[in-house]
Design a protein that fits this description.
The protein is of the alpha/beta class and 265 residues long. 44% of the residues lie in helices and 15% in strands. It has nine helices and nine strands. The strands form two sheets. The chain has a seven-stranded parallel beta sheet with strand order 3-2-1-4-5-6-9, with helices on both faces. A two-stranded parallel ribbon has the order 7-8.
Length: 265
C-alpha cells in the first residue's frame, strides 16, 4: 500500500519509535495526527517534522483517559475527514520482579497497554468500517511472544494485544481493514527510563541492552516497510528476535534454558 495522502494517527508520538515514525511517514506524503500527553512536546515534534498545518494535526491524548477518545477522534475527522491508519504505539514498560510488583502496577500496565489500546481502536474502527478501508498497527514487543525477567505485567499486556488483534484481523477481513503486529526487540529509546518499578515509581535507568539496541529511526523505517508490504507480523531487532523463532520451533525445555541465561537488561 502507499502512504501518500493517507491520514495516519500515531500515538506516543513524542519520543522513540513513535517520534521517528512521524518523520518517516511525513516523507511518504501522508497527513499525520500526532498524540501524546504533553502538548509542548507535540509542538516540538510538529516543528521538527517540517509539515504545515494542512498536513499535521496535534491531538493530545492520554491512554488512561478513554472517556476522551471519542472527542479526540471526532476532532481528527473534522480536520481531515477520515482516519486511514491508526498506529497504536503509546504505552509503558516495567522493570521489577513479579513478587515485588504491586497488583495496582500490574493493573496499570494492563489498563494503559491493553485496555487503552483496545478502547482507542474501537473508537476509530466505525469510521474505517464505514469507508471499507483501514489499517491498524499495534506496536507490541518480542516480550509479547515470550515472558521475560522483570517484565511480567508488561509481557502479559503485550500477549493480550496479540490475542485481541489477531481475532480482530479475522473479523474485519471482509471490511478491507488490515492489522499489523510489530514486535520490536532492543531498540535504543527511553523505554526503560520511563518504565515503572514495582511500586509504580519511575524506573529512571537506562538498560545496557536498550542503550546498545537498534537505532529508533532504523526501527521506524522497518515498520514503514512492513506497513507498505501489508505484513501481518514483523520482528525487529538484532539477535534477540532469534528467541521468537527458537520458542516456536525448539523443544520447550531448550527454549527455557536458553532464555533463562539471558540478561534481564
Amino acid at each position: 500500500m502507499t502512504l501518500n495522502n493517507k491520514v495516519v494517527w500515531i500515538t506516543g508520538a513524542t519520543s522513540g519509535i513513535g517520534e521517528e515514525l512521524v518523520y518517516k511517514i511525513a516523507k511518504e506524503g501522508a497527513k499525520i495526527v500526532i498524540s501524546a500527553r504533553r502538548e509542548s512536546e507535540l509542538e516540538r515534534v510538529k516543528k521538527a517534522s517540517n509539515l504545515n498545518d494542512d498536513s499535521i494535526f496535534i491531538a493530545p491524548l492520554d491512554l488512561a483517559q478513554p472517556e476522551n477518545f471519542e472527542a479526540v477522534t471526532n476532532s481528527i475527522i473534522k480536520k481531515f475527514g477520515r482516519i486511514d491508519l491508526l498506529i497504536n504505539n503509546a504505552g509503558i514498560s516495567q522493570r521489577s520482579l513479579l513478587m515485588e510488583t504491586q497488583l495496582s502496577v500490574t493493573k496499570q500496565l494492563m489498563e494503559i497497554n491493553f485496555f487503552g489500546t483496545v478502547a482507542l481502536t474501537k473508537t476509530v474502527l466505525p469510521h474505517m468500517i464505514k469507508n471499507k478501508l483501514g489499517k491498524i498497527v499495534v506496536i507490541s514487543s518480542v516480550a509479547g511472544k515470550f515472558g521475560f525477567y522483570w517484565r511480567s505485567a508488561y509481557s502479559a499486556s503485550k500477549f493480550a494485544l496479540h490475542g485481541y488483534f489477531e481475532a480482530l484481523r479475522l473479523e474485519l477481513y471482509n471490511d478491507n481493514i488490515e492489522v499489523l503486529m510489530v514486535c520490536p526487540g532492543k531498540i535504543n529509546t527511553n523505554v526503560s527510563l520511563n518504565a515503572v518499578d514495582g511500586n509504580g515509581n519511575k524506573y529512571n535507568q537506562l538498560d545496557p541492552g536498550t542503550q546498545n539496541g537498534m537505532a529508533a529511526d532504523v526501527c521506524a523505517s522497518k515498520i514503514v516497510k512492513a506497513m507498505k508490504a501489508n505484513k501481518h507480523e514483523v520482528y525487529i531487532g538484532f539477535g534477540e528476535t532469534f528467541a521468537v523463532y527458537l520458542k516456536r520451533f525448539a523443544p520447550a525445555k531448550l527454549f527455557f534454558n536458553f532464555i533463562r541465561k539471558a540478561s534481564p537488561n
